[in-house]
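Record pair follows.
FIRST:
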Amino acid sequence: MTMSKLTSDLDLHRIQLKNVTEFTVFILMGFTGTFEMQVFLFFVFLAIYLFTLIGNLGMVSLVIRDSRLHNPMYYFLSVLSFLDACYSSVVTPKMLVNFLKENKDISHFGCAAQMFLFVMFGTTECFLLAAMAYDRYVAIYNPLLYSVSMSPRVYVPLIIASYVGGIFNASVHTVATFSLSFCASNEIRHVFCDIPPLLAISCSDTHTNQLLLFYCVGSIEIVTILIVLISYGFILVAILRKHSAEGRWKVFSTCGSHLTAVSIYHGTILFMYVRPSSSYALDHDMIVSAFYTIVIPMLNPIIYSLRNKDVKEAMKRILG
């Protein structure tokens, strides 16, 4: 009887050990549906991705080639375009491959690398959009001193600081997330390795991670949005001082594209991350994530080129 009980206890112990064995690969479940639907989505997102690369890398090339665009505003815009191309490239190629594959796995290291790059580029863009708002304030509020106030000694450190902030935030979340144990399931209900769906499949206590996500994203959003709002508050004052209707329209045209991009980008991030974990609906969130990681990088070149006279003229000179 004693021997039988001992054997039973050993078997139970082995089962428990087996159950807590961590997975070395994850499976990105992505969008589910028939094979025909998967093929349709493949071509839709392929078209969006190609347009994103052509638009954003084209913008970078335009700024480099046209000497009339060699000023801080367009340097910031070229960095934003480069970020958008990278941001989309972290997620889209793997997602496109998965549409046509049965085996949708990604290694533990690959998942961590994807999450790190995704968070890094996303956070860097938040800081860069704030720096661009400050640049517009300096250019419009005191245009005579713009070249001095926004010299390379100012805008280069702003760009570098944006990247440093992105790398730091990505490092914190990647280390925190992949310090958890993943033994309950390896199926990620998402198209890429984002933080909330990874926390959802962890068998560790994720309360600290959820607080870290909420406070880190919340703090970054508050700081960057405040910079944007304060900058545009001063810009509004400068606009109201202008007597020329043409001058006012030029300022609105220049700033409108930036405000549009900022509103769309920050709105989706706030919706995704700054809310209680109990309100996460992974299937719904997957669609929103696809929007801001794949669709927004495609929209930015359209927003900036259609609303910006200098960019349109530069495009005519290059194409003509």
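SECOND:
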Amino acid sequence: MDLVGPAKIAFGIKAQIRRAIEAEGIPYTYVCSNLFAGFFLPRLSQSDATAAFFVSKLSQPGATGPPRDKVIIPGDGNPKAVFNKEEDIGTYTIKAVDDPSTLNKNLYIRPPKNTYSYNEIISLWEKKIGKTLEKIYVPEEQVLKDIQEASFPLNAIFSIDHSVFIKGDQTNFEVEPSFGVEATELYPDVKFTTVDELLNHLV
């Protein structure tokens, strides 16, 4: 992962905990849930954010749904991220608890139908509302500056969004059998909720 700012510190602590678990020989399954769709989708970056607060979905605390007029996009909007409904994450986690195939591995929840770039998800939203949004792209250099200048917790949120939406850290690697398994492949019987279905509820 290509982390900066508070995200680098937070994920560094998580990595230390994981290494300690492994060093003690404690059996584990790490669930890599990716983005909580119920949290992120209704808060896609909206128009009244200042340049310093463009990345965070929380930069629009009054937002009740994705934008209707203007959207501010970090970077070029092309790296892909994974959006999963919280209940689906719970379902996959429960199924993995007693599954030997997840023992001492990462369980990645990466449904192809829930994997979108920022540009793709905005395009899908535009089709649903029958309207083309004004798009403002903010370069990575500005994102990094905003991470340095913002106070906590916004700088933490910005740095996570930098990792996800600019560096593509959720999807820029293959899941290798030596260290991980993919949930939708392991449990094809689970009917997960797609991003398309989730956005329908926000129209």
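COMMENT: Confidence is low (pLDDT under 50) at residues 46-62.
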